[in-house]
């Protein structure tokens, strides 16, 4: 085992590299003597930067190349932001480990204003997330939402260049990159319900690689895994793989799981919300039943409009 090298396929953005190095370090700490190296790669999502993600094929763009590398045995594992991982996996691959969650909240970042409410009338806010746009506009219909793509550093650079009065980013990404001081206000879930899996890092590998799967168990965080399972079950029941304004966020209170869900229209004029509380071994069922309640309460029509004729079953 010790002469074998485990290869982590990774994107080359600073955040992706941070996450891959984090898993590399944790694996080597948990298993002294283990050899783990990074295999940096370029994905379509890194190349196409000028078009809103929803228009070019969604989140899967960031993971396809990494998955191909594992299937072709050019790499053994991939580290993902759980937020970017589509609901299903290619034959032979699967998610085997979920690490402890970082701050799951959205962060308000601005050089001039302390909060959403402090923004002047008609202020320009940068985000390309329909979920963030929906919740911002619901609270402040006067705000002008402008597209914002690129990695975390690029986005902060555009804010600093004066293109926006404020931008919204995941708190987790900023904290991991040592940029926590840029967070002016961490938005509570009541103001901006996070995306499914936000703040959590997951590890994908070949399902027949029993040796690696066993080694990875040391990195698994059971509580985070339960929360993300509930969130993803809700998303799976709602989604068809496209990008839509969906929030899904679970926390554990002792052994009680609390899951909140949101489906909204991109302009914030409609927002369907719901919640479930239950035991942690009901995570999946809670996600599915919350999704069905949201669909019945109007989410079906909203999603139908966004998908343009491809409603969930
Ligand atoms: N969509 C890109 C993406 N994927 C994961 C994170 C942040 C880290 C995380 O949520 O784990 C980000 C940046 C952002 O949304 O600001």
TrEMBL record:
Q: What class of enzyme is it?
A: transferase
Residues that the record marks as modified (S-(dipyrrolylmethanemethyl)cysteine) are 242
Q: So what EC number does this one have?
A: 2.5.1.61
CDD domains (UniProt xref): PBP2_EcHMBS_like (cd13646)
- Residues covered by the Porphobilinogen deaminase N-terminal domain: 6-212
Domain Porphobilinogen deaminase C-terminal, residue spans: 226-295
Could you tell me what the cofactor note in this record states? Binds 1 dipyrromethane group covalently.
UniProt pathway? Porphyrin-containing compound metabolism; protoporphyrin-IX biosynthesis; coproporphyrinogen-III from 5-aminolevulinate: step 2/4
Tell me if Transferase is a UniProt keyword of this record.
yes
UniProt keywords (A-Z) are: Porphyrin biosynthesis, Transferase
The answer to whether UniProt assigns keyword Protease to this entry is no
Which catalytic reaction applies to this protein? Answer: 4 porphobilinogen + H2O = hydroxymethylbilane + 4 NH4(+)
Q: Identify a single GO molecular function assigned to this protein.
A: hydroxymethylbilane synthase activity
The extra comment attached to this record reads: The porphobilinogen subunits are added to the dipyrromethane group.
Name the HAMAP family for this protein: Porphobil_deam
Give the protein's function: Tetrapolymerization of the monopyrrole PBG into the hydroxymethylbilane pre-uroporphyrinogen in several discrete steps.
Instruction: Write the protein's name.
Output: Porphobilinogen deaminase
User: Which species does this protein come from?
Assistant: Pantoea phytobeneficialis
Which gene name belongs to this protein? hemC
């Amino acid at each position: 085992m010790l002469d074998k090298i485990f290869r982590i396929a990774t994107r080359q953005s600073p955040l992706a590299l941070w996450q891959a190095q984090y898993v590399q370090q944790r694996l080597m700490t948990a298993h002294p003597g283990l050899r783990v190296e990074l295999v940096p790669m370029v994905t379509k999502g890194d190349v196409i930067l000028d078009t809103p993600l929803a228009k070019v094929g969604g989140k899967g763009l960031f993971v396809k190349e990494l998955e191909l590398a594992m299937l072709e045995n050019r790499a053994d594992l991939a580290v993902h932001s759980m937020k970017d991982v589509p609901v299903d996996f290619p034959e032979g691959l699967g998610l085997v480990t979920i690490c402890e969650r970082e701050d799951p909240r959205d962060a308000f970042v601005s050089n001039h204003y302390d909060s959403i409410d402090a923004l002047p009338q008609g202020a320009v806010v940068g985000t390309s997330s329909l979920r963030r746009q929906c919740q911002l506009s619901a609270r402040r219909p006067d705000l002008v939402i402008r597209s914002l793509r690129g990695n975390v550093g690029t986005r902060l650079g555009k804010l600093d260049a004066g293109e926006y009065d404020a931008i919204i980013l995941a708190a987790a990404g900023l904290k991991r990159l040592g940029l926590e001081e840029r967070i002016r206000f961490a938005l509570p879930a009541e103001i901006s319900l996070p995306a499914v899996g936000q703040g959590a890092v997951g590890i994908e590998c070949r399902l027949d690689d029993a040796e690696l799967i066993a080694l990875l168990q040391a990195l698994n965080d059971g509580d985070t895994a339960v929360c993300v399972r509930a969130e993803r079950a809700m998303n799976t029941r709602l989604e068809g793989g496209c990008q839509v304004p969906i929030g899904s966020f679970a926390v554990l209170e002792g052994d009680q799981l609390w899951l909140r869900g949101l489906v909204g229209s991109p302009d914030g004029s409609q927002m369907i919300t719901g919640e479930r509380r239950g035991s942690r071994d009901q995570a999946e069922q809670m996600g599915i039943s919350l999704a069905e309640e949201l669909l019945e309460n109007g989410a079906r029509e909203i999603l139908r409009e966004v998908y343009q004729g491809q409603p969930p079953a």
